[in-house]
Specification:
Layout (H helix, E strand, L loop, with lengths): L1 E12 L2 E12 L3 E5 L6 H8 L7 E6 L2 E2 L5 H4 L3 E4 L11 H6 L12 H13 L15 H14 L4 E5 L7 H17 L3 E5 L3 H7 L2 E6 L2 E6 L1 H4 L2 H8 L3 E6 L2 E6 L2
Helix pairs in contact: 4-5
């Protein structure tokens, strides 16, 4: 399985280019973290990949086939999207929220197979005890697990996550990223995730892609990408970068 992003260009107006000629690839079982300052187009890129936004130029190639012009329903069978915010979810039982992930596959109504898949995912994600609770009554970490479960119910080959740890405490940040990294391997997924915390990206990602000024600034392994020089160029701050427990570690300097 392979997903290739080729020469994606997007702007919200003719005078506002957000992404220019973005190209990279992600393979099965590969975890890619997308980094960069606020406003560099991380969320926009994820939405272009998933065709929530339509790029002005470029292609999305899946397993050698151009899916750029495919129907949203067909793309949803390949890619699942986990948005940045979960606080705006509508009131509904958890099981209904997860079942929505079967919509791209459902033929008018949910089948016994759809229900079987959803029940299996509830167990796998350890949220079956919340199945009939209103999703709004859950904690931030629990809601995030439900939204990831909904994405898994699509049975995608690629899962796209927009800052899934942004509003979580330290324990839940670690828990969610361990969960995503584990799913990447056990479910043979390609994972593309935007994240601000470079230390967490270094711990979990196979590859880090950094954006700057509408373009890819650098892309590679955490060991090669997370350097004082790159961080200074991207974020304009001084840091000390060390290797601890086998991972790059970034410490801000005053």
């Amino acid at each position: 399985m392979s997903l290739e992003i080729k020469n994606i260009t997007f702007g919200y107006s003719p005078k506002q280019t957000v992404l220019a000629d973005i190209s990279f690839a992600v393979e099965e079982n590969e975890f890619v973290s997308l980094a960069g300052p606020n406003g560099t187009g991380k969320t926009t890129l994820l939405k272009c990949m998933n065709r929530i936004l339509r790029p002005q130029a470029g292609q999305i190639i899946f397993n050698g086939n151009d899916i750029t012009g495919s129907r949203q329903q067909d793309i949803a069978k390949i890619m699942a999207y986990v948005p940045q915010y979960t606080n705006a979810l509508r009131p509904m039982p958890v099981i209904n929220a997860v079942m929505m992930g079967r919509l791209p596959h459902a033929q008018g109504e949910y089948s016994a197979k759809d229900r079987e898949i959803v029940f299996s995912i509830l167990q796998k994600m350890d949220i079956e005890k919340f199945a009939f609770r209103d999703i709004r009554q859950l904690s931030g970490g629990e809601r995030q697990k439900v939204v990831i479960a909904r994405a898994l119910a699509q049975q995608p080959k690629v899962i796209i996550l927009d800052e899934p740890t942004g509003n979580l405490d330290l324990k839940n940040q670690l828990h969610i990223l361990k969960l995503i990294a584990g799913l990447c391997k056990t479910e043979k997924l390609a994972v593309i995730m935007s994240i601000h915390d470079l230390n967490l990206a270094a711990m979990f990602a196979d590859k880090i892609l950094m954006l700057k000024d509408t373009r890819i600034f650098t892309c590679g392994s955490p060991g090669n990408v997370i350097t004082r020089e790159n961080i200074a160029s991207i974020y304009g701050v001084a840091t000390a970068v060390t290797t601890e427990d086998g991972y790059k570690h970034v410490r801000l300097l005053k």
